[in-house]
Amino acid sequence: MDKQILPSILDITPDNLMGMLDTFKQAGIKTLHVDVMDSHYVPSLGLNDRLIKWLHTRTLFNLDIHLMVSNPEPVSKLVIAAGADAVTFHINSIADSFNLVKLIQNKGVEAGIALNPGDSPEQLIELLPILDRVLVMTISPGRHFNGFLSEMQQKVRWLTKYRTDHDSHFLIEVDGGITPETIEAVISAGADQFVSGGYLVKASNPKANIETLKGRIKAHDKD
Q1: Looking at residue 212, which CATH number applies to its domain?
Q2: What cofactor does its activity depend on (predicted)?
């Protein structure tokens, strides 16, 4: 599976948005990671369906939507209508995860489930055969000050082994604290997609930082 860097746009200020999108395009980025937060599931408010619709109609990026909300089903319908290409929700945010996965997929959109640091991948056993992706949070959602949690690479290893043993095809995505120093651990564990926020969007030279992360991936693939 091709490994990708997914910039998280949550912390991009409005005055920098257009320039940053152009930088991502020049750097060969294919997919943007868009967090939607409701201030209930996590303490913060995040981006909304209007921005997703704007990105869908005005850019060529794929849109990977991450719902950090307490009631994901109605929100998933909003972001799908706005142009989401993939929608991921948290395993503990809804009672019937299977139904929501199928609802998303029936709209022609990829469905994923996110695992918080305290969640076990074994919780997904019944769902892994139908999922398009699993998102492993490598920080506590909404609490970025905790930093990258290196213990989460064991979760990635478990998912990688399950995928191999069962000939499954879900992507393994990691989100939180991804820098040149931390990406190597999750690459080695088997992750496919790497969400990076502050390291890219707050950088003085975002394009150079994207290339640095890509370089880490290429170096690992050569080994």
Answers
A1: 3.20.20.70
A2: Fe(2+); Zn(2+); Mn(2+)
**Residue 105: which residues within 8 A CB-CB, separation 6 or more?**
111, 130, 132
Helix, strand, coil shares, percent, the chain, to 5: 45, 20, 35
Who wins on pLDDT, 148 or 66? 66
Residue 64 appears among annotated catalytic residues: no
Evaluate whether 76 touches 68 at the Cβ level (below 8 Å).
no
Predicted local distance difference test score (pLDDT) of residue 142:
63
> Of these residues, 49, 64, 132, 175, which one is catalytic?
175
Query: Which band of pLDDT confidence, cut at 50, 70 and 90, is reported for residue 145?
Result: low
User: Is 35 part of the annotated catalytic residue set?
Assistant: yes
Q: Is the pLDDT of residue 35 over 70?
A: yes
From 35, 64, 132, 192, the catalytic residue: 35
**Residue 169 belongs to what domain range?**
4-222
- Quick one: which of 129, 82, 136, 90 has its CA closest to 109? 82
In whole angstroms, give the CA distance from residue 70 to residue 178. 25
